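Notebook entry, structure prediction.
Reason for the run: the old model in the group folder had no record of what sequence produced it. Starting over properly, with the input documented here first.
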Amino acid sequence: MPCDAKEEASCSESDAEEVPDAVIPAAPKKITSISSPLRAFVRLRRRYQGLKKSRLHLELPREKSAEFVHTRLLQKQLSLSRTSLYNPSMAFFNQSGFESSQYFTFDTSVEHYSVKKCRRKKSRRKSRMVLYPDKTKKYLPAEEKSKAKRCLLLLIAIMFFQILNAIENLDDNLQKYDLDGLEKTMHREVFGQKVAVESIVELLKDYLATHVHNKPLVISLNGPTGVGKSHVGWVLAKHFRSVMDNDFVLQYFVMHHCPSGLAPLTCAIDLSKKIADMVTRAEIEEKTPLFILDEMELMSPVLLDTLSRFFEPNQTNEFLNAIYILISNLGGDEITKFITQNASTELLQQQRGAEELLSIIQPVLARVHPLWKAADIIPFILLEKAHVINCFLEQMRREGLYPDQKHIENLANQLSYYTTGDKQYSSMGCKQVVAKVNLL
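New structure, fully documented this time:
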C-alpha cells in the first residue's frame, strides 16, 4: 500500500531496510523458481507508482534527501539485475536506459506536468485516424431526410404557382378589355391632349387588372368647352361596347335625361335604379360596368347627392366594381388663365404642368360638391390652331370630303383664338368644326 505524503521519509527508510533482507538471495542458494523475483518486482513497481501519485497531489514539490534518492536508485538497480538474470526477455531495462533515467527527477511542478500531459493527449487525439477494413467501400453514414424540408419546398412551389396564376389572370383581364387598342385609338382621334390621354389609360389599366376592389374608379374630365372631353367619353363608350355588351355601358346626358321641366328627385330615383340594375347584372357576369355622365355642371344638388353615395367605399361588392366618368366645364376658366400665362414655356406638355393645374382645379370643384374629393381629376388644356386643323381633316374624312389643305386653313382662320406670343389657342376648341364642315 502507498504511504501518505507526511510519512514519505519513514516509508522510504523501511522499504530500504526490507528489500535487502527479503529480496536479495544468497549466492550459493539454488534458484528453483522465478515466481518470487517477479512478485518482488511487481511490488516494487506498485510502490513506485503510489509514491509518484502521492507526489503529484502536493501543491509544492519537496526536495528529496540524498539518502532517499540513493535508496531508490539501489532498488531500481536490483530490479534490473534480477530481471536480466531470471527473465532475459525483459532485457529492455538495460544499463544505458538506467543511466539515462538518472536525469529524471520529481522536482518538476505539478502545473508543468499537467500542462505537458494535456498537450500529449491533444496531440494523440489529432493523430488518430479512422481505419477502415480492406476491400470495403468508404462512405459517410446515410443522413435522414427531414420531412420539414420537404414541406417547405412544397409550400414554396405552391406559392410560386399561385403568383404565376395571378399574373396570368391580370394579363387576361387587360386583354379582355383591350386597353392597348383603346390607347392607340385615343391618341389617333384626340388632338392636343397627350398627357390627359396617358393619365386616363393608366388609371384604367390599374383598375381593370383585377376584379376585386375596395372602391369604384371615378375619373373627372374638366376643361374649357371644345377641348375634347365629350369626344373622349364617346370613344370610351364605343370601345367598351365593342369588348362588352351594350348593357354594361351607360351614357347619361343631364339635359337629355333630366330636362329642366322634370323634378330633380325623379331624376335621382331614375339614375339610382339604372346604376343598381347595371352593376347587379355586371357582377353576375364578372364584368365592370362603365357610366359616362356628361354635363355635370348642369346637375342639380339632389342628383349630385344621390350620385355621391355610389362613390363611397363602404358598399356591397357589386357597387365597388364600377367606373364613373364625370365630364364638365367646371374649372375651365382657371385652366384658360393658366394656359395663357404659361404659353411661352414647355410646362403644358409635362407632367409637372398637369400637377399644377390639378392644384388649381381641386378647390374649385370641392366648392361645388364634395363628391369630387373621391375623383381622379384630369384637366384638359386649350387646343392650338394646328390641333384645330387636325380636327377639320378628321371630320372631312368622316364625311367623305376631299381634305384640301388651303380650304381647311381658311376654315380654321374663321374661328376665334387667344394669341399669346407666337402661339394661338382656340377659344372654342373644335366645337364649331362640325358645323363648319356641314356647311360645305
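Summary: Confidence is low (pLDDT under 50) at residues 1-32, 59-63, 89-104.
The old model has been moved to the deprecated folder.
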